[in-house]
## 1
Amino acid sequence: MNHLPHAWGRPRDDVYGHYNPSYLPTSLGGTQHISSMPTSHTQSPIVTGTSVIAIKFKTGIVIAADNLASYGSLARFTDVKRLKPFNKKCVVGFGGDVSDMQYIDRLLMSLDVQQNYAGSAKEMDEEDGGSKALMGANNLHTYLSKVMYKRRSDFNPLWNALLVAGLDEKDAPFLASADLLGTTYSAPTLATGFGAHLAQPLLRNVVPDEKAVEGITREKAVETVRECMKVLFYRDARSMPEYSIAVIDGSGVELKTDEKLENQSWAFAETIRGYGTQTVPVFVEDQDQIRTLDEMREYLPEDGLSAAMDDHPFRTATDPGEFRDIYLAAAQAVERMPKPRQLEISFDLQVDAGMGQGEHEFSYAQGATESWYQESSVDSKVGWGMFPTVEMDDQVPKAWKKVGEVKGATIELYLSEQNEHYINYRLIH
Amino acid sequence: MAAHTLHTLPSTNPSFSFPQHAPSGAPTQHSFYPYTDNGGSTLGISGASFTVIAGDTRLTSGYNILTRYAPKLFKIGGSGPDHKGAKIVLSVVGFAADGRALQERLDTLVKLYRYQHGKDITVHACAQRLSHILYNKRFFPYYVQAILGGVDEVDGSGALYSYDPVGSYEREYCRAAGAAASLIMPFLDNQVNLKNQYEPGSVQGLEKKQLEAKPLDRETVEGLVRDAFTSAVERHIEVGDGLQMMVITNEGIEEVVLPLKRD
Amino acid sequence: MFRNNYDNDSVTFSPQGRIFQVEYAQEAVKQGSVVVGIVSKTHAVLAALKRNAEELSSYQKKIIPIDTHYGVALAGLASDARVLSNLMKQQSLASRLTYDRPILLSEITSRIGDRAQTNTQQYGKRPYGVGLLIAGVDAKGPHLFEFQPSGVTHEMMACGIGARSQMARTYLERNLDEFQGASREELIKHALRALKDSLSQDKELTIDNTSLGVGGVEEDFQMYEGQDIASWLETTFENKPEGGEAMETDS
């Protein structure tokens, strides 16, 4: 038997001759015209929504999605609510095709009618058993996953990724996903679409496992989700700053559909020069190899810093020699740290924006000290411009412990408590 | 670590056990392909009076970890949603949605069997039924590798059956399936079936006496399972997070979930 | 032979507004041996009297566990009950599969009620010749439903159907106030006493002719037969001071 599964079930050429393609459409080498072809179903989504994100907290769930429906790269509809509440206990978040979302929403409405038909709404309220007999989010998720799987098995998929959030039959927080293939899974944090890449790591930082859910308050969960929505808007081109957010807990569904992103900082955008990794005036890579001062010295450009600085549109505020002193002092400080150590060094360069000739405008510093970076799980430093910059005040994120100070050179050394891989230097003006 | 070192990584694509796109000679068109590979690995080993089935709990999609806890092992039969009194375990690896559908179908059929016949289905009957379910859908297969385990009602020995996606099946002493099957199976061949192990001192010229495989005891088997998975985790990105292990004996099913590396 | 001209099918009304075929079907229920059901705040109990066709034959099946949370007791044509219980089993499994939840007893009852009703409105169909008591616990708590061949269903606090069931109902009506707060054991005893009241003088409840089904909150529906019910029979009847026959409620 042929070991290639692709050949299974096909007539053997040596016995039956070549495959007769006449029944296929002309585009596939056959003779059939499209009008006489078999029914075809959705081959791709048309108007789409992007990420949905959700996180569990001690007594409930927070779920969010922005209000945009895109037509390819066109931001086509800017007021589309992609969170659909269901019966006081559940919210379904939809990513993917919007018309399929609307179809599923109609399914949900008829399901709601069917569920409430047997017992009147009055009975639901009065009887103690009423709210227990309501469909829980787990029941709804099972139902929707069956719908999705049936449609994929019919080769007529509903082109969506769904998050079902809410309370289950026992009023415990429930969060699970179902997608166009009928794949289902559950986790304390979930994100679809771009969110799976950008938001999920941030969410998992806050809630790494089911046990951690106990320690998360409603406020913390909401704050985390809002922060993630911001990151998604920064980096997902098919997103917008108006979004919906819902909190489901014992007191019911609280759905807000007209939220706006707050405290955006696009300052980092000014420093972006083209795509990809940017040239950093001074950086040291390959943490494992750098051990001694001499080795580190090798990483300095031959003629001090000027060569490296030349590549950069900005000029240093201090002269290269001074900068070099600081650098070496930092290196000495690193030397004193216990081994083994993993290093990744970023300098908070004070740069002259180049605007004022006579005065030094110390306006921005590289954003490595900003808490946004520190809290994110992005574990690679990609140089200039990839992170928002902050104004150079004396704020240091609280989670960073001051581990040493080098007097002669004006530099302070901080060690992140959460992640000891990073050492951050901060130039003091 | 740093992004600027990323380019030093080998630029090979990850290998998946299934094609990521529909096989087609036509120019690539954005069309619907109803399968995906959700990674993960399973294995089963039978002993003299028990069967152990294990699987990791990671669920992946490409490079994404969808969740760290998605069981691949399911109790079959018994009563109610908790499968009280069940003595058969099914493990499925491959396309998770198909795995789930297969599990639900088999479980429903086994429960109906009990309702209609007033007694529990035997493992070998259940094994054949599973084969039929898979075979009936051979033109649109459940894209899973299944392993079924229980205790033989006739002689009390551990019973283990393994399947291909279209229903070919076989009773075996051990079997690994899924993403890391190619890593685990040779290990099991050597440690369970004692392949390439010879009696010390029996080598005389070309004469070598193969060691004869005997049923292993439970501690040994559980040790092998843990070793197999901790090793697979090191070498396969789609395996990790948790190890779910079920031991089926005549008394019932014992289940443990152990941590695996989450990287 | 015929009682009148209006009982040839189940779709024709008599001038008095009756459908005789349905009423005959209800007679079939009265031919069946008695079954009793009671609910408390926490439990639902079914008790049934099994008949054997002859000395050498086995006893009929009166209580059928359907899902883990409920079961049915039947009076009337056992084969019709089997068809209905198969349907209920399927519907119950379907509810678990599509919604991951045990079906509500009110829902499964109205499903078979609707099904039975169609038999009374389509030519060539025959009504089911069986009555059912559906008892168990769902998300709304313990329940007991009565199903009749006409498709009529009622939720009951206590109920008895089948031959001579009037006596059982009398017992149940007299003790109705006690059921709500009764414990599991008390409820079982009440069911057995009600069942006993329906027996003719020369008959006794034995471990061979009695079936029990018990469901409760956080407790799966469980059927008890044979030796499992021996102690209940003993404590309910034998230990009564006055020869076991007298019940405090008989006064």
## 2
Amino acid sequence: MKLKRRDFMKVISVAGVGAGLLPKDYLFSSPTLSVPNGMKGKWMSTVCQGCTTWCPAQAYVINGRVIKVRGNPHSKANHGKVCPKAHLAIQQMYDPDRIKVPLKRTNPKKGRNEDPKFIPISWDEAINTIADKMLELRKREVPERFAVLRGRYSYMRDVLYGAVPKILGSPNGISHSAICAEAEKFASFYTEGYWDYNDYDLEHTKYVLSWGADPLSSNRMIPHAISIWGKVRDQAKIAVVDPRLSSTAAKADHWLPIVPGQDGALALAIAYTILTEGLWSKEFVGVFKDGKNLFVKDREIDETQFEEKHTHGVIKWWNLDLKNKTPEWAEKKCGISADLIKKIAIDFALAAPRAISWVSPGASMQVRGGYGAMAAHALNGLVGSIDNKGGVVQKKSPPVNKTPKYSKYQDELAKKHSKLKKIDQRGSKAFPAMKKKPGKGVVTNNVADAILESKPYPLEMAIGYWNNFAYSCSGAERWERALTKLPFFVHITTNAAEMTQFADIVLPAAFHMFEKWSFVKQKQNLHGYAGITQKIVEPFWDVKMDETEIPYMIAKKLADKGFSNLLDYYKNEFKDPETNKVPETEKEFALSALKFYTHPLWNGSAASKGDKITSWKEFQKLGVWNTKRYTYKTKWDHFKTETKKFEFYSETLKKNLNLHAEKHSTTVDDILKTCKYTSFGELAFIPHYEEPYRWGDEKEFPLIFSEHRSRLNREGRSQNTSWYYAHKNCDPGDENWDDVIKLHPKTAKVHNLKNGDKVRVTSPTGSLECTLKEWEGIRPGVAIKCFGQGHWAYGSLASANYKKKIPRGGSNNHILPADYERLSGSTARHGGVTRVKIEKIV
Amino acid sequence: MTKYAMIIDLNRCVGCGGCDIACKSENNVPDNFHWADHEVETYGKFPDVKYRHIPKLCNHCDNAPCVRVCPTKAMHKKDDGITMHDPKKCIGCKSCVLACPYEAVMYNDKVPFKQWNNKSELIKGGTASPKELKDKSKVPFPNYNPERSLTSMGVREKGVVEKCTFCDHRVGQNKLPFCVESCPASARIFGDIKDVTSQVSKLKGKYELKVRKLEKGTRPNVFYIREYYRV
């Protein structure tokens, strides 16, 4: 390829210095500057929750103000590094548009075009109103009509999201998890019995095959990935499957610009090639008894001829589906040449077991994405890289205290009603939402429809915290209608978000990173860890902590009114483990609850599993407790699947699908049909090909829509910071201070569009407006846009006009339909789930 | 004699912009320009497309055109090689802005951080105004870094220029420039290029060095090694 190089850099030759000299870190002569006392700062430990990497971080504090941030040097997970998102947290905390006092709505009419006419009220009035509403539901013996809608969270979450509904008498603690990436967990659960996100041994890997994963920009180990990518490039090959040249694809050996949603075809052809070329792991998968490779195109194999070792069903998988999934077949589906597919497959397998097949939301959150994601994850099984050095591993968890049981504090009403069906319709025929068992997963986005349909019952009151479903859920307009219908809504939030516009009471939240006590658990670099967010500065405003202080205040008010169960629970179960003191105020409670949960980490008892920390004071200073490094191969033959093996033929999935079918007195085939899948019979239990489901007719909506994340997105919450827009072109293809939809120049030409055009993007369910960008790094025929902008509320910068509710850019959730990968309950927003048309706005 | 230099390893750089943003927080740089910045370039035709992100900053040139043209010596070379600017001597003639081939000198054509004097509230009585927040914080803006004022103005004024100083206020405290400390990829290496044992010297011996716009004869002290994309 010929590169057109601008006159940017020219080489100068510089004579080398003598070799053999010891390297020396930068070192200066003695310091020449001293810092006056009033200017002296201190680095204090906390955690960044801008994305779910949840990095141990530190903030530099001078005179009660946060000046700058860095990674926590005590963290073994991120090596003391943070990605660019962490810096934006400063502007998020010092956002003048933050809500500074509790507010109440004075306009009873709700709707996007209604001004809520918020007026400031006292905390006492706000909490009093909330407590009255809660008790009224209990008095009418319908406490299930209350819900807590959780968005982002810390592991203090159960104090609010668990205890409040359960002790009041509602089953409805509803998490945001299904708008996150439950379909990705589907892939690992139904192969290796692990319902969680995997970790990846980048330090030792020799091949990274990414399925839409863009770890240099987004979830779930960004600073570790960034810090080690230079080493990975030196020692490994990298291939990135993505219709867009992502930041990771730009740093890879191969960019595989796939047709969105066709990941399954590519993964199956890679599996086919690995088997037919005889490159599967003999150690992990097994061997043919007579030593001859019987994986030959179109030829079925007698299962008895293969001696399978740590896996289950490889021959079944071959016979049922793989035997004709050739690269030539896949090329027509996925748009990647057969030759390149073969090369990727062979190189990947030759690098194994130090080879990573990295499944992401991009390759799984499709209506029919579950099986393709399984296929991509199963490649790790084929080459034996699961739970192996340089491969794909599970997690190590920090040993923290469990949330104390609620049952002692539930009266008869609460016991009975908290067992009712949850509002999100999980477990219904159309929503198997099979977490570890059918109906155990959450279907977050369906709550809007459940509210609108009053099914399984009407919802009358909800408390939402750290969430913004009217912005962050696909089919966002349904949430606007649902929240209009919801009689009483309390929003705990830092900013007047979209969801806030429908609130009756608004409670200002402390900013997690610098104003709040909490802890999180995560993993990177084969270390699990627990990090604490700390109240390291005194907030400028009258804000409270969402997960501890506010529920305590509610509990106190409920007790004043004669219902003391919640307060009893908080006081009895969350005593300060150092002093055994009962928390008497919300401030004391916030800290004592955190100390309660994390006690095993800092009383020295967890030393055998990781760091030895012997006092709360020391833990506060360090801010993080690290597990020991992950040990390989401990899961082999102990996977939490039905067979204890890595399952290519998933007995685990078979069991759950049958359970769900029996519950609804029907067949597995009928369930799959209801869930919009197209293959039946035995194919239901193996990774197999499914044509991607797309909304919209190709004639009317000629382009496939695809979206991606920004390396500056703090989920949807950094769009009121100027640094976000001033550096937006750090996302390849994007522009500073703009929101662009990217098209390949040839595609743009076909549709009479050009760079800089203001355009309307329309799907079958909605439209948005933004700017057109022609860019070579986009697959022709696909329209790609970053998620994150298009707020019509949230702040004066996030929106183009807050008062008039005019968005800045366009929100993808206005063109993405509300659809699901129903087996997992996951929202389906990737893999080209909708088609769009793009028109120039004249 | 010490001479500071920076090497940027493009193989390690992932184009995240962490350096650019960290610099903002360290040096109180307004939104409308960047001391630490980058250029992006896309080459080739689909599907053989290459992309690169090149961080850029003041090159602290040995033969600095900005210093040569400055009529008041506001722009000057320090003994340690840093190209320094004294805003008190600056008359805002912008000769340096025009002379610099790297667009690394920026002119304040408006009062920096003026937006913090805005008194409007999003929700009356419910949210703050920028002015209210500024007044509460008792500094020019809430995350203002006073350490920047150790060697220069904490916030520069309308009518003067400003640019990267290699974080001279940190280097003087035996600390690395904040972009170097903040780079999650460890792609920025800083040190004394005259000291043969320093990391920069070591890398200088190991890799081919590249500079921006060699033909301008400015003799930059910010060097680039390796390539952003796979060659």
## 3
Amino acid sequence: MRTSAVAGLIFANSDDKLKELTANRSLASVPFGARYRVVDFALSNLVNTGVTSVGIITTENYRSLMDHVGNGIAWDLDRKNGGVYFIPPYYKRGVKRFADTISALVGAYDYIKKCGADYIVLYDSHIIANIDLSAALKAHKKREADVTVIYHNGKLPEKSAKKMILSLNDDERVNSITFSEGEYMASFGIGISIINKDLLLKLIRDAEDDGLTSFAREVIAEKTSELKIYGFEHSGYTAIMDNAATYYEASMDLLCKDIRAQLFDKTRPIFTKVRDGMPTRHGVNAKVSNCIIGDDCVIEGTVKNSILFRGVKIGKDAVVENCILMQETEIGNEAQVSNVIADKNVVVADGVIFKGTKEKLCFIDKKQIL
Amino acid sequence: MKSKKCVAMLLAGGQGSRLGVLTSKIAKPAVPYGGKYRIIDFPLSNCANSGIDTVGILTQYKPLELNDYVASGKPWDLNRTDGGVHILPPYHGQGGGNWYKGTANAIYQNLEFLERYNPEYVLILSGDHIYKMDYSDMLAEHIDSGADCTIAVLDVSLEEATRFGIMNTNPDGTIYEFEEKPKQPKSTLASMGIYIFKWEKLRYYLTEDEKNPDSSNDFGKNIIPMMLHDNQLLRVYRFNDYWKDVGTVESLWEANLDLLNPKINLNLADKNWKIYSKNTGIPPQYISENAVVENSLITDGCEIFGKVDYSVLFKNVTVEEGASVEYSLIMPGAVIKRGASVKYAIVAENAVVAEGAKVGNEPNATGDENWGIAVVGDNLTVGKNAIIGANKMITENVKEGEVI
């Protein structure tokens, strides 16, 4: 049976500098927004476009990602035809283990060939956005493009890694591609592109033969005259999280009503693994203001301007400000924490005071006890 | 097909007419409970947690919502290749067909389903109660005692006993008499409507009961008395935990607010006995800068800008700035607009309480005996500045400024 004309290919370990949260997991499985993992946005955007086959390329520490995605049931990707297909590295004499995008694509070659789709969406996992990819796909077909790069027009993200800058014609045809960082207005690729399958397979074969390493820089950017490369603008909210500062900023963006409305557009829901916790309990003396909170929390203290993931417990008279507290973190009675990102299962004991500043956030590693 | 040790039959066809507008479009087991559940999540989760993987769900009254909700049984891990959930509505055969006449007749009409699995034991459940129970423990006791039928009972007060089916027992737990709502109870062991039968006995007595045209084909009224008459071995299984029939507006309201009462022993956070429900694709809750939320349960999809106290808010509820919700249940998707106030009330799914409207009242505000919980039906709008008093049940839209 023919599944869908489009398949997704997610890079779970995009080049990231979010070391504080990716020591034990891939970037794709970094917790985000009180109940999600970063990959939920990629998977949901693909599924909401009608994609029924998704390959996930992993390089290292992908156990938590596999646990989260499982057989894809939360995204309706538990299918006989298509579904989720993990592409972990494999040993082959002379092949580096997915050290770069070309070797990763070489690893995904068989999947791409057999997935039955005509178009492949290449998707870096570190993008937080709710994108209507079907509109991009329609444009891609109408223009008979070889490659369509999804871009955002705006100020380049501060403190972020080098971005793919597009120089565009009036009809969105890409003239040239450069890579740059800094803080200025530009049309920059956000790490999602649509490419015709046969072309992709050919480009992978050629790049492998030529010993290239970067698909974006050495293949796509070099072929702007040879290939019909178009841009497609995603004008809605876009966060690219490639380091701690951008992660924190994107998390706190959720406190803005307009951004929530864009990200959690009811017509294109973001799905995640179901956890079956009970609703969050706000205690008798709880004081919560300007917070995003997952289910299964018990709040007895004061919480301001923070993101609480599922199962967080805040003790009596505790004060939490400007924090991101991940799954099952416990803040003891009368403890005070501010400007802290606590990874899963952290325990801050009664009365402990632990404070970072807006400029210098404090990280607490998974399962630490303070 | 390999046979099953125990198959559960869940009676979910009841209307729950005393819930009024809350069950005008859905069957009672589909009524929302506890912020993110529906009543049927309790027996289904209990089955899943007790290792019972084959459940027939007998539907009759307004089954659409229930069918849609249960679907393949995925949220309860009951989407099994061998077994799983089966929705069993009344059907027509060659010789015609009938609605389910009573609880026993509903099972009788589905003997074919049971024969297919050919279990050793059949567990009969109803979809009307909030409780956590390990059916495997009851089954073990049933098997050990060699009883033909074991009935779960709850020790109630003498006063309450007049409202239940009461089991009169010998000291060893065997039942010698069953009395429906006795005026002078001899015992305080109330039937919870949970039975385990030996399959052969159940089949025999259901078939016998069908031969009697005067029978109301009911487990309590007919099957149990007939078995006692035949000197079959019937025993009680004592249950001592939280159990609540949510058959009335007051009891539904109370059972929800019980979740906020630390003295009440119903822990839904227990990781070893989770209550599963269907919830997907909803963002986390947001509590705004000026919101005041105390002693309440709030779940995914809620956006709170106003005041919420001692209440249970279901998914996707919005409470706008200056609005207040106290001692109330606000069901999925309902919106409480700016300046509106809701007290001692149930606002059903997707209802809208417009700006400045007031719904419900405190028990002591009126001082009259007719005080009760106000209810706004699903998908209705209470117009701006309208006032709805205590104990009112709203079944159609209320105009702006109207006083009811």
## 4
Amino acid sequence: MKRFPKGMPAAERAILQEQLIDIILVVLKCNPQLHYYQGYHDVAVTLLLVVGERMAIAMLHTLSKYHLRDFMDPTMDSTKHILNYLMPILEQVDTELHDFMIRSEVGTIFALSWLITWYGHVLPEFKHTLRLYDFFLASHPLMPIYLAAAIVLHREKEVKQTECDMAMVHHLLSRIPQDLPYELLIGQSQELFDQYPPSLLAKRAALQSRKSQSISTFKAFQLSTLHQRPDSVLQRLTKAQDSTTSRHASRHSGLEAALPRDRGQLWGKGNRMVKMAVWGLSATLGAAVFAVAQTAMDWGPEVLLQLF
Amino acid sequence: MAKQYDVLFRLLLLGDSGVGKTCLLCRFTDNEFHPSHISTIGVDFKMKTLVIDGIKVRIQIWDTAGQERYQTITKQYYRRAQGIFLVYDITSERSFQHIMKWASDVDEYAPSKVQKILVGNKSDEVDKRQVATEQGVKLAKAYGMDFFETSAFTNHNITETFTRLAEQVLAANKKDLDLLQMSMNDELDLAALEEEEGLCNSAAGDQGKGCWC
């Protein structure tokens, strides 16, 4: 697994690998309508490395039912449909670039792994992956597409200078440069999203035929996450941390015996990891709730007023 | 732009997930081998130039995701291929049985003239072998294909396999080669025409690269 940090001892790696499989199996078993796709593990491993097994299951479970839902159909037709949002964004911003890409017949498959792994499969630096995951956790399910558009627009000159050939353009775009200015691109994708929201793009002919579950359930998801305030989440996490520590202290208690493997080694280091995770997660959730509240206010103030 | 090759062919690697398509390709183009499995998502390609009978043949080898659900996506690349590797893993009976399905997909979606070759990879794993060499030979014969057992790990038969398919594609297209070059010139003219008609944007034209699509 290349996604595990370099220099991690083999034993720890093996434990994580086991946990990764468990996480994926638990989520898929709970949701028989969801299907595994190559790349799903990239999402799972990112969550696992930051928040540990228990929380990763919860997060993956929710993401699979909402943001990643379209990718988990038995076929990839819905995924292809989501990719169809990319070209209309480019068309709005840079017609010349858009036409060049259409002429090259490059399609949008170069962005497939970006979309379905939230860039986890392609970014060499784990910290960049984490930054993007924070962004996507706090955003609309289509945001990875807007970021893809921002990346392509950022590389506009390179693209136009390439031979106008499917293979050449695919080759250029599918390789993400090492030194992308992520903060800038995140800002730009948010701007693109505000300027050309999915509803506007969906009016385009090619996008009308199909319904996306991720998009159609997002409003419900936003409303449900409104109730997950950072303070209550923090409380729950602190409790979880406590129980973890006590579990670590009394390793032969019933709780620990119920665990299938010896996770002592992992949790020894885990204390710091859990703290970092709590910090990262609360920051993320805070941002998410803020973003959610803000967009929800834009979209349906009357619903919200009733709620409060 | 001066071309560094005489002719360009597109080859395609097909087969179940985990049979070693990406490893075969990495071994052939970069002489590298990575034992850990990193699944391919979507499609990608690598290039290499071979000299066959004094002709510089540039081959563009497309690597595909093996998982079944990806086929809606990978199938659109079949029609561009002139040669196809059907790859199975000699330690997986299942991957061998699936060759039938891959072959029938090729019949359905690839050009009728496409050249095929059967590849049984991981030949170094003698202890885990589930598919006998004879089975591979027999199946290849039934389909009228050549057959190689390879190992990306030990670099066994890798160059041979890729060169063989390139030779076959070259032979199949030899008669058309002159014709092909003529039609390539036609396409250039066509692009120039389109430019005059303003279909190509001026910036691309100014850069002198144009769109030799």
